[in-house]
Design brief:
Length: 132
């Protein structure tokens, strides 16, 4: 049993990139599916596919690399709020990730979204992770 599924999700992506894998498979949940959609919309991953099996399902993510340098598109994945220390922020308290080049993923009362979307909608929430 995994005590922190979001940290497990980020670690699987990080490890797959360090090993130069093209595809990573992750056990699915609704929160992980939404984070995957955000990563795709912001251009951090190539493709994703949600597969149903007899249990909870699977997320297959095609990782994105720079063709000339072979470096991954995601330079840093960092878990902010964790089970032992939750991190909440109001819209005006969101910190910029890598001088505005990265994103923070926030779980709000209106759903999971990026920090910029949450600020535009003037909602705060739990800061799950930062990516750049």
């Amino acid at each position: 049993m995994v005590t922190d599924p979001i940290a497990d999700y980020l670690t699987r992506i990080r490890n797959a990139q360090m090993a130069n894998h093209r595809i990573v498979e992750i056990p699915a949940s609704n929160l992980k599916k939404r984070i995957t959609e955000i990563l795709y919309d912001k251009g951090y991953i190539l493709k994703y596919k949600f597969e149903d099996d007899s249990k909870q399902g699977l997320i297959k993510i095609a990782l994105k690399y720079d063709p000339s340098t072979k470096l991954p598109a995601i330079q840093s994945l960092e878990r902010i709020s964790r089970p032992g220390l939750r991190s909440y922020a109001k819209p005006e308290e969101f910190k910029r990730v890598s001088n505005g080049l990265g994103i923070a993923i926030v779980s709000t009362s209106k759903g999971v979204m990026t920090d910029k979307e949450a600020k535009a909608q003037n909602v705060g929430g739990e800061v799950l992770c930062s990516i750049f």
